[in-house]
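Input record (one chain):
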Amino acid sequence: MAKQGVMLCWVPVFLDWAGPGRYDFTDMDTRIRTVLRLYDKHTPAGSPKAAVVVRIQAAVFTPAWYVEQAADAEGRTTNLIEFRNPWGAVVDACPAAEVAKQRFGTAYAGQGSTLGISLGDPFWDTHAIDCLNAVVAHVRASDYADRVYGWLPCALNTNEWFLRTFAPEATCDFSAPTQKAFRDHLRARGIACPDNPVPLPGDCLASEHGEFLDPANDASRRVEEFSLWLNDRVAQIILGFARAIRAATADSPKLIGFFYGYSLGLSRLQNLSQCGHLAVARLLKSDDIDFFCSPCEYFFRADEKPFTASMVMGPFANSAASHNKLVFLEDDHPPAGVGFAGASFCTRDAWHDEMFFRRNFAQVLSHGQQLWWYSLGAKWFKEPYRHAIAKGLQRVGLEALGRDRSPVAEVAVVVDERSMSTQRCNAPLHSMLLTESHGAFFPVGAPFECFELQSFLRHEDTSRFKAIVFLNLFRVDAETLAGVEKLKSGGRTLFFSYASGLLDDRDGTRTFSATTAGELVGMALEEAPANLPLTVWVDPARTDLMPGGEDVRYGWLHIDVGVKPSMLAVADPGAEPLGFLRSDAVGLARKRHQGWTSVFSSAPCLPTSLLRELLRQAGVHVYAEGGDVIYANRSMLAISASSAGAKTLTLPRPGALVDVLDGTTLETDAGGRATLSLKRHETRIFWTPDA
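The corresponding structure, as predicted from the sequence alone:
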């Protein structure tokens, strides 16, 4: 890779930690020195020297000595994260004697649960910080200190700071330290609780108001409080790590970052509200954190799906820039022929491999983000064709630095992490509300950006957006209502769905209010009967919304998973009815106000064709009509084809498109339209006339 101009290497490191203050850094030194030696050997003359980011692996922070000293008389661990299933049984807990064997692992093989010290254990605030300080001090005193560019401390599941179990019905963490820490938290807030207050899995499946928790019920309040406490605790640990590195490197600042903020990518898992990643807003405020990172979203990778797309796994995607932070996407896809059982973890052949590289690169380039290629196997970058791909994309990336990369997206998609803690565990519904609803925007044919709610309302320049879509804005307080109210201007269209604004927390006591929902949405709403299916029909006999009279039906269609909808229907004679519930009440409506427009859908996850038409009528420029994925900024435009055939690109203004890789030119007509023929999943990247 050095020969291709890639000069920053992220090096996973381990060390032997035998006890307090007893560290052996031999393994870490060998890894870093070997990487730098090989880079120096192959770096072309006149090129800058390679640098490294030190990626401290999660296994470092699960030292066997600490686990063993807390084991009970039978050798069972008492300070590791412990999952339970709905019947209260332990899913698995790694025996103390097995921990030492997991030196390079982040998951215990029993059922794939997270291997890590309990979040409630003071270890994270004491011994872990001591270890981190020792690592930084050793590196600063080493012969490679001047080659270190940044730090990426890792912990918990797959090194990515989240909690997960592959037993789909399980929730966490029931270890003794967490029981105590959560109990102390509740009692400090004056909340009565039993000695072991962590909510059982059965409690996490119950609800009092549809899918939502009612804090008036003690058990449900603990479910919500535990979610808030656990996510805040993970953020607290991360902030402690960041402060320690920042203080230790104050005279020679380095980049500091973390895998974090996967609320979209983790929404398919049972315990989203207990994953640990729902405190993005807090971490964004920290001056000690310089970047966030994640792999490319796995859910949209498989080439068997209707479309493929790339993005980091959460709303830090575009909120980070509002706080002067970087976003790194980790492209960890293997080459063709590397065996993985899942279609989302492998590529079909060398051609598809190159298109995967191009697509991820186009997304990063269009959003002003960063990218690293991650090799999980020794031979992943051995093939010459991969070297050529890397060289070409590296060249384009350097050329882009001299061009106008300002955004052109007119659509903002907003995620509210706070609302996730107000719901019972229901992974299919959470996936629909977040991953699938967000994913429906990729094949619309227009670029969009994704934000965390609080950051968006407080810090983002919203004037450039013609449409703002709130995926899950269920819980509101006075600040949120006031922030959304400021967006109701400038000819903008705001989109709401499902139970937007239903949870009113303004006076410190939650109420479930269709009136408050209507205040947020901008049209009169009412609660629909609880026994109605959560579906909407855009009936061409009753509305001419869809071109060609398309009959569109959408909503909750899972036959094997129950949902308890708190469904709102439109009861506003001034709103334009666009879709209907099974009761014939209005389930999709648009209301035009002075200076802004509101769109509300009773069911989440609007289909792409419906989104495209609503966005077009909101004034959003649509670059492509056929379900293809578009990435764009002021100087570049990329298309990733979802089907084979002729494609028409419509630019905001006419001019020539120049292929960034081979230099060929594609001229538009006077209307800004250009036609090209593409294979399915083929990705082309162009410099635009504005470049």
